[in-house]
């Protein structure tokens, strides 16, 4: 099918659609789960293939990556997301159609989603803080009904897709879309890491932790990473200089001992300069004791609990910086992909599933046992 739309200037505006089939399969749920039995609600449905609006592209999904917000969505907590729902924030694929106003993409381009959807015109957006936009929504989590990446074809505004560079696969790009972006924004955009710093990556076995280790090493930092004991060797293989079991009650004492041994070429006080935090819970105060004077903790989540007690003496006495972070900018995603194309950052893929195996895939992510890196789903 070829559709030509004439523009007002001398150049024809057009989009070419190669979607010959009329329907596609999609992973849909129409109710929330109360017991995390995802198999009860996840169903494969036949839906119409989307056609692009004037500013949109449609792409055939080759790979999509799981995120924890998929589980929040299926629970309907902390947000009651639109129903019926298609999840999937991180999707990569091949462009099959473009709207008449699309300028920078064409049919056949390899693209990946940038799931942070914002108004693009408010003061926050135009100052480079689109992640703080009051109208921000997360595509595939808050959008809908029936608008996400777990399907054969999906659509997004041109501004919410990024070209995949040569040498990066669809699977690697999907894995990196939100997770690498989040890690890059935490360390580079917010904490502004510098060569020679000592960086503690909490939960290094997770998706964000994997990228956090690599980004810190890219910037010439010394890295201590934590994980469960079965993942410590993998942290070292990924580039961490030291690996610590954070399930031990005294894990922070091991970190402190390492910090005292490391020559401080950029200061005279031993301690951690930057803590990459997304665990929260009972670890929080232990982390604060490890920071150097003027040190920074950058947090983007709290998988072990939100209600962390804080000993304020650590903060005011040492002049600590506590920074929050969510996602990042489209430009930061492109920066990360540049380094991926140079082989300096890689995506760690734990496992791959089909859409029909979605319940099993999400259960694995929820339990986390033996999980190292990202879980990928493919439509076929």
From TrEMBL:
<dbReference type="InterPro" id="IPR013154">
    <property type="entry name" value="ADH-like_N"/>
</dbReference>
<dbReference type="InterPro" id="IPR036291">
    <property type="entry name" value="NAD(P)-bd_dom_sf"/>
</dbReference>
<feature type="domain" description="Enoyl reductase (ER)">
    <location>
        <begin position="40"/>
        <end position="377"/>
    </location>
</feature>
<keyword id="KW-0521">NADP</keyword>
<dbReference type="GO" id="GO:0004022">
    <property type="term" value="F:alcohol dehydrogenase (NAD+) activity"/>
</dbReference>
<dbReference type="Pfam" id="PF08240">
    <property type="entry name" value="ADH_N"/>
</dbReference>
<dbReference type="InterPro" id="IPR013149">
    <property type="entry name" value="ADH-like_C"/>
</dbReference>
<dbReference type="InterPro" id="IPR051603">
    <property type="entry name" value="Zinc-ADH_QOR/CCCR"/>
</dbReference>
<dbReference type="Pfam" id="PF00107">
    <property type="entry name" value="ADH_zinc_N"/>
</dbReference>
<protein>
    <submittedName>
        <fullName>Alcohol dehydrogenase protein</fullName>
        <ecNumber>1.1.1.1</ecNumber>
    </submittedName>
</protein>
<keyword id="KW-0560">Oxidoreductase</keyword>
<dbReference type="InterPro" id="IPR020843">
    <property type="entry name" value="ER"/>
</dbReference>
<dbReference type="InterPro" id="IPR011032">
    <property type="entry name" value="GroES-like_sf"/>
</dbReference>
